[in-house]
Sequence to fold (250 residues):
Amino acid sequence: MKRVLASYRWRRRLIWMTVTAGVVGGALAIGFTWPNTAPPENTKPTGGPVKIAAPPRPLPLKLRDRAAALAVASRFIDTAVARKNVDRAWGLVTPTLRAGYTRKEWDTGNLPGIPPFPVASARWQPQFSDVKGIGFTMALFPTKASHQQAEVFMIGLHKVGLGKHRHWLVDNWQAAPTTATQLASGGGGSSGGVLDQITPRVTATSAKAKESPIWLLIPVGLLSLILIIPAGIAGTNWYRNRRARALFGE
Fold:
């Protein structure tokens, strides 16, 4: 240590190191002790209370309105979704739903926002009904030739026009988070899992199958047995009595 202090160069280096340490230490001390002159940040919310929009008021759905809305939904699915006579679906949707499409694009079926689906039949469940419109959950079942799985969509409709010209239009069509299998098995539906069919041709075919004349033969046959059996017994007894009288010469 004495040799270090005896050296002029080392003494000069120690002086510079001491001065530097003092400057740095002073700067740090000032930085920690000097008060913050910036205005304090206002953490309290400004303005009035936040207003949250109330949900649309629920509205009971009349059977007549439901039937009319489902008729529009059925035509929309049979045309725009099934890609058959797509031009007929132009008048079934609101300007909002067909926004971004020209009439030519729409008529050719170039509709990225409405995925095509080979519809064989469709079933529905009510989703909501309020002052702004109504919504249904639609389960679409494909044709056998398509080899596709059933899919579920959500459709929304609202009324437009005045007076007698007031009618339903489709304003929303999107994939639903629920699978068709869950719907068919009664998953969360108000109809207990029994979804009503809306496709006219499927419903008509099912009705004809149920009303086939073959099914009428069962009650007709039972009614005939009720009449034929007593008549047969009475006829047999009459024949036996007549034969007995003939044998005994009565």
